[in-house]
Fold this protein.
Amino acid sequence: MNNYGFIKVAAASPKLKVGNTRYNVDQIIEACKQGKEANILVFPELCVTGYTCGDLFSQNTLLDRALIELKRLMNSTTDQDTLIFVGLPINVKDDLYNCAVAIQRGKIRGIVPKIYTANYNEFYEKRWFASGINIMDEIKEVEVFGEKYPFGNIIFKNKEMGYGVAADICEDLWAPIPRSSYLTLNGANIIVNLSASNELVGKSDYRRQLIRQFSASSLCGYVYSSAGVYESTTDTVFGGDCIICENGEQINTSNRFSRKNEIIFADLDVNRLSFERRVNRTFSDGQRFNQNNNYTVVDIEEQSHIDMDRVNRNISPTPFVPSNHVQINERCKEIFNIQVSGLAKRLEHIGMERAVIGVSGGLDSTLALLVVYQTFNLLDIPMENVIAVTMPGFGTTDNTYNNAVGLIKSLGMTFKEIDIKDACLQHFKDIGHDPDIHDVTYENVQARERTQILMDLANKSNGLVIGTGDLSELALGWATYNGDHMSMYSVNCSIPKTLVKFLVQWVADNNIDEETRKILYSIINTPISPELLPPDKEGKIAQKTESIIGPYELHDFFLYYTIRQGTEPKKLMIMAERAFGNKYSLENIKKYLKMFYKRFFTQQFKRSCLPDGPKVGTVSLSPRGDWRMPSDADYQIWIDQLD
């Protein structure tokens, strides 16, 4: 069974009674039953005894019963292939260690002692526990139940499923250099943390930020489980905070302060983590500089794969667009400012105070025009220095024409109209093309005529031609080579089509007057089209891009996961089916994914000679900034996997 790199992890915070090891293990066993489908299951720090036992940790009765109950837990999970991490005190050479014990199929797989014993403010751990930092240099095994088990820094590896797990215990994460930092550099791509982190005002936000940031900088998954409300409240209160992150993203969290057994699940994508580490050379350099090799590798036993149908992971159908309104506004503001800053720098550097831009009445040229508008305001350059040109052709409709004219005039720019039909007809005559044949020549003659006009106007006025093409068009090669493909500075080159309308809408709602806002909303509601073919009998757009190449939301989805995560074709197809639900059949997804690969590979030659433009997100196809691909690479093995 192919799990496509997904593994299921779980974090549990069960009810407990401080010092009542039997009751506590009863709750742990119940949680293990709930988490039996997980590959990895994590419990809180010292969950077998309770974290807040205080001086009771010096009592042999408590320590002996903890081991007895550990054995009972092992016996109750002999048929469970989950790698289970539980916390309890372990006596080694007459020192007591706060440990994470990993068990699988009724066997101890390894024991990890806490390194950083918290001993400040409300914490007094050094009163009861020794740090494992010294003893790990002396011994690599400890004896429990008459058998010896690995002890110290351990990476638990599942070679078949491609993951390695290492354990932190609470304070280990909060240290200047967490113990797990070294272990991630040595191959661990999932960190589990058995914790007892009490609740203070604002601490939860900081804790979650800390975990997200660690998972981002270490390119790993992170599974965190903290002690709950049934710990002693003599001086502190615990909330049972459970958190699962992946590469800086918070995948799932628990309800804090719950008074019942809490368990949360998430499906981590270890293939994605491996891809991130391969392409991130900073991480690779960190591996070379890492001198800490004081760790043991333990191969865990075979585990069940997750059936892809049971993978419970939220896959956004619009990965370029945030899911909530507040985030969308913040993202749009930041992106728009990057575009404006890039253009402002270019104009200042070359000493130009004029811009030339073609305006079609479509979304892309509208966004570019708004960037120019804001840039000229920023640089305090008169708006009449923007020469905005509308160039009606054979496919121009009244709606887009009126929107283009109205927008240019409402922004106070120099309006210029140049009808290209006669010039194109003359060109058809010159090259011997029948104008009644509406083929690629018919379309591209118009695109190149428009670009020639803009370039010549720029020379005449000492201005800069502003490109309007977006990232999605570049990915698919949906641009005329040396036509709309070319400009002197391309402000939209990193903006995917699915994000363009949100940017235009953000400007309409925040940065513009009421008259212009109405025009912008009309443009937002206009179908996407290059308008190179004649309109229909009613004068409406006949040539709709998405009816030819497929929905842009699908292509943007394919683009994001192909470039950003290196997702393989079959997995990508299944992810798309999951993300879009019943909107597209699997057959159509497959058809458009094949089209994406073919166009993406065959059109690289256009991307190899792109004009400059600002990178705004994690996906860019600039041949200088991010994407370096040979123009004659073959796509067949990607198609073969789909077939």
The chain has 22 helices and 20 strands. Residues 6-293 form a domain with the Nitrilase/N-carbamoyl-D-aminoacid amidohydrolase fold (CATH 3.60.110.10). Residues 436 and 442 are 9 Å apart (CA to CA). The first strand starts at residue 6 and ends at 13.
